[in-house]
Specification:
binds histidyl-adenosine monophosphate, 435 residues, five-stranded mixed β-sheet, alpha+beta, eight-stranded mixed β-sheet, 15 helices
Length: 435
């Protein structure tokens, strides 16, 4: 038997309700913040990720799915969404839009060759958002607020917002110098990967999973202490805006994030909900003011975030969640051996009117049809046979009260719609109190 590839998962019909809910809330909250959706390809030229996420990051070094196409071009399944959005904004000249900033959101599968575990897959989904073309600290606060509002709308309340600032290019250079000086005499105490990172990209030493608790890294200099005055001012303004919004956050001086493109504000939101297991970071993001220019685009400041959707699904497991049960409006029950061909027309008319209708294809017994119906949780059973056809009526039985009325076929749709909206028969069924 051919099995799914390690680190990938099927999302089965039983689970899809939660996914639809997460997607619906995402679209609603995006609308509240006036973001528009953008969809980009699932694979891009490999160079895009090498030059944006960073050659020396774990993502590019160890985790991308790269392949040569039949024309020998190197492509990569996208490991994240930001780089593709930047490519698309530049290529489609979206920045010429007179009403900058662009406020874009995206949703879809991403691919990273990581060691699979709960909350960490090789194919996973991200919901991300980016604001492009504005360097105001209000925008940093706006995306953090968007992420927090989305979690609130999902009723995920146990959250911790952690923020930090890496500063502008000059701050980053100052910090890198200080970090190199500090690390140099300590490299013997760090793992071989850290030693490689020290040479290639010292900031990445701080991402080390092996030496995370090592006092050498714990006591390393912090980016916040090397900010230029203007970077410090930017960060202070972000904090003032977050306070004004009323969001609770913690300044995490060790937060540097695992992608190279960040400048100024970086943030993550974690939750300690038990169902998340060890992968407790729901969303990560930050500002990346140099990425557009470094990919030969115009000098556009930008800031954004991405949620791991599988982690949101896990988080919802801990929450008593009122997602409506599956139901259908009507199950059509056929009496007698022969299926009444005009039943197909009746069923179709109801569906065209917006009602969810299902029926039995197997010519089952009456009892089995009711059993099958109950598994689908219908509001009405529609009962129809030769006798009903002759009299041009249909029997409508409510599943909850078991009340049954005869309704003229011509009035059926209206009767059902009125009953669903709490009203009764529109007149003419000849069987209910109103008639
Ligand atoms: P990231 O921190 O690499 O940032 O990923 C964002 C989120 O995606 C993580 O917090 C996590 O919830 C989820 N995630 C990442 N890898 C996996 C995985 N293997 N399995 C399940 N979930 C995962 C970015 O991707 C940036 N592009 C975010 C951003 C947007 N920054 C600015 N704009």
């Amino acid at each position: 038997m051919i099995r799914k590839v390690k680190g990938t998962y099927d999302i089965l019909p039983d689970e899809i309700k939660k996914w639809h809910h997460i997607e619906e809330v995402m679209r609603n909250v995006a609308k509240l913040f006036n973001f528009e959706e953008i969809r980009t390809p699932m694979f891009e030229a490999s160079e895009l990720f090498h030059r944006s996420v960073g050659e020396t990051t774990d993502i590019v070094k160890k985790e991308t799915y790269d392949f040569a196409d039949r024309g020998n071009r190197m492509n990569t399944l996208r490991p994240e969404g930001t780089a593709s959005i930047v490519r698309s904004v530049i290529e489609n000249k979206l920045y010429t839009n007179p009403s900058l900033p662009l406020k874009l959101y995206y949703y879809g599968p991403m691919f990273r060759y990581e060691r699979p575990q709960k909350g960490r897959q090789r194919q996973f989904h991200q919901f991300g958002a980016e604001i492009v073309g504005c360097d105001s600290p209000l925008v940093d606060a706006e995306v953090i607020n968007f992420a927090a509002t989305y979690l609130k709308a999902l009723k995920i309340d146990d959250i911790f917002i952690r923020i930090n600032s890496l500063g502008d290019q000059e701050s980053k250079q100052r910090y890198q110098k200080a970090l190199l000086e500090y690390l140099k005499p300590n490299m013997d105490h760090l793992c071989p990967d850290c030693n490689r990172r020290y040479e290639e990209n010292p900031l990445r030493v701080l991402d080390c999973k092996v030496d995370k608790e090592n006092p050498v890294l714990q006591n390393a200099p912090k980016p916040l202490d090397y900010l230029t005055d203007s970077a410090k001012y930017h960060f202070e303004q972000v904090i003032i805006a977050l306070d004004a919004i009323g969001l609770k956050y913690e300044i995490d001086k060790n937060l540097v994030r695992g992608l190279d493109y960040y400048t100024h504000t970086v943030f993550e939101i974690d939750s300690d909900l038990e169902s998340l297991g060890a992968q407790s970071t729901l969303v990560g993001g930050g500002r990346y003011d140099n990425l557009y220019a470094s990919l030969e685009g115009p000098d556009l400041p930008a800031v954004g975030f991405a949620f791991g959707v599988e982690r949101l699904i896990l988080a919802l497991e801990s929450i008593e969640y009122p997602i409506a049960d599956n139901f259908i409006h009507c199950f059509f029950i056929n009496i007698g051996d022969a299926f009444q061909t005009d039943a197909l027309e009746i069923i179709n008319d109801l569906r065209h009117g917006g009602l969810i209708v299902d029926y039995d294809f197997f010519n089952k017994s009456l009892k089995s049809q009711f059993k099958q119906a109950d598994r689908m949780n219908p509001i009405f059973y529609l009962i129809y046979g030769e006798e009903e056809a002759k009299r041009h009526i249909i029997n409508v039985k409510r599943q909850d009260s078991k009340d049954q009325v005869e309704v003229e076929l011509d009035n059926l749709y209206q009767y059902l719609v009125n009953s669903l909206s709490g009203g009764g028969c529109s007149g003419g069924c000849g069987s209910c109190d109103g008639c």
